[in-house]
Design brief:
The chain is an all-alpha fold. Helix content is 68%, strand content 0%.
């Protein structure tokens, strides 16, 4: 996510989101500190809006694993997602609502 190329950042974020969609990757990814890269990217208003959406998708996939909830909350992942919903950019807000995460069950959502 350190590239200055927005397209490279988008594809990296999308790849992370896809990897995080696999159940067997989620805990390891959080243990390997992926949240420390995703969350700041989401909250940085200067970051590419599509990249921010893909990072939010990755965060949603990681949140499908209850063992990751504590780390997500500690690192202010929920606040990061809320910041996207408050964005002045219509594309960012709409993207948040257009990309529901099929991996999160209602049971997981209520544990936050």
């Amino acid at each position: 996510m350190k590239s200055s190329d927005n397209e490279a950042q988008r594809f990296a974020a999308l790849a992370i989101a896809n990897i995080a969609s696999a159940v067997f990757n989620r805990i390891t990814m959080v243990q390997d500190d992926i949240l420390q890269h995703l969350i700041p990217y989401i909250t940085n208003e200067d970051s590419d809006f599509m990249g921010r959406q893909y990072c939010a998708m990755a965060l949603g996939n990681l949140a499908a694993e209850p063992e990751n909830h504590e780390d997500i909350v500690k690192l202010e992942g929920i606040a990061a997602l809320i910041s996207l919903l408050k964005s002045e950019e219509v594309e960012v807000r709409d993207g948040c609502m257009d990309s529901p995460n099929p991996n999160i069950s209602p049971k997981c959502i209520t544990t936050f």
